[in-house]
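seq as requested:
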Amino acid sequence: MKISPSGGLTAIAALALALTAACAPADSDGDTSDSRPAASALADCQVADLSLLKAGTLTVATDDPAYDPWFNDNDPTNGKGFESAVAYAVADKLGFAKTDVTWVKAGFNQAVQPGRKSFDFDVNQFSISNKRAKAVDFSSPYYSVSQAVITLEGSSFASATDLAALKDAKIGAQVGTTSLDAIDQIAPTTDPLVYDDTSKAAQALQNKQVDAIVADLPTAYYLTAAEIDGGKIVGEFQPTTGEQEQFGLLLAKGSKLTTCVSAAVDALAEDGTLADLQEQWLTQATSVPELK
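struct tokens:
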């Protein structure tokens, strides 16, 4: 999901979810068990042997703008923000110095389409799904997340305790994201409103053009803390299937680099680095109720 940056706000709330397991599922079946190749041993992944876009350089992509809490100050190169830090940690596991990492821009919808890529991997809150895996590869998951409903304080929907209570709400979300797909689980009586990015959805809520918006939980914390005056997180919810939504690094379909990137992510999960980065950049401030 994409949100607008805010100066000085670098640690935003998120779920305390198990990272070793790891813009609601993108597939109707919710099954992601076969959506990525098995990881190879990290010891087999030497820089000189990797199939890279440019020899000796790891080319990493993300969207522009790149927002908190995933990136800081719209500058992926500074290593600040959860996903920037994860990208550099993966690079380090693969044997790259920070100076050997080059960042390029790639839009969310552009990246998930089939075809050649201008990067080795893209980090941009891509939810792993079988549907997307028909066009691209995913690494092992580096983060697990739920969806959240945001409204304004004083709204007639602010006190909703289940998804059914939101049925009559006019709801919006960013185009092409699992948050938009997740609105189907609410089954609103009116079609959802679709926005180019989450900042525009948030502005629509602020202007009372919609009653609520859906975003992943870390984004929801950020929006209510920094972007939406009087914003309130009504609650969080999981996919209907019960499967946990997970973010993975995105690579070209059939990339020879996928297994090594997965091996690096797995190693970061095993040694506690992912948990430490989550604690640093996605520190949970408050809990929210679960909507069923």
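Residues 42-144+242-281 form a domain with the D-Maltodextrin-Binding Protein; domain 2 fold (CATH 3.40.190.10).
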